[in-house]
């Protein structure tokens, strides 16, 4: 007999997208090897886009949003996972083309699933896509050979989920971190995470034309904004430095020149956590359980029950939310 479970289902009608709690049958879930009882999910900008008309991330409705999910395996057709395993899954099509974490149950292919080590399901969902992207960015800079002795690291969009976790991880690794944010009220939080200084948005004049090369200031950067901000950052990175870029809230265009690359040897490192191969994904989660574990998760995390997630989605869409929102699914409906 099929099981009924609670879910937040987004449906599209006449150009509008609604998100409402429904009781759905287990047959509503797609095919997959691993069925997970979801304990926690989270709120990301992509989740907000999933419930926004013409948001550009959902292929077809209805969809259960939630690009992150963490919980316990309740059924498995894979030899790699057993009932009772604590797991996390994110990226790929989860929450965009395949039902995601805003439900009591989720079903995904085994090759999308990561077994948790010492992390709790709550911590794994809190880290989620944003924290994983931050860890991937920091890993890329470290693999590039950048060390604390090379100089400060800039983090743009520092008050968001990727940015705040990046500040935390970089500071823990011994770097001098300069956090750039358009939210003055986030300065105290960013300082508590380890930022040596907090500055406003870059460039200071958003209408100014970006110089091909500016004053060299940063050994490297984690850019969560894109657009003019990324162009400015590239023009101010020191010789041999690198920028790990993962965001486009500032726009998808990049008004720069080749000069930072051919005159300063700057590297632009593209960061994608969605289609990253599972072996790299699982290996990085092991590091996140160890030396790349965020030190101040509770400082920038707000827990909300799944019943209140719509309010947070609206805040994230409007750029009014700071830090991370972890969503309590089990017992939260």
Automatic annotation (TrEMBL):
Protein name in UniProt: Oxidoreductase
Domain Enoyl reductase (ER) residue range list: 15-327
Gene3D superfamilies: Medium-chain alcohol dehydrogenases, catalytic domain (3.90.180.10), NAD(P)-binding Rossmann-like Domain (3.40.50.720)
Superkingdom of the source species: Bacteria
Cited SMART domains: PKS_ER (SM00829)
Gene Ontology MF terms: acryloyl-CoA reductase (NADPH) activity
Pfam families according to UniProt: ADH_N (PF08240), ADH_zinc_N (PF00107)
Cleavable signal peptide: none
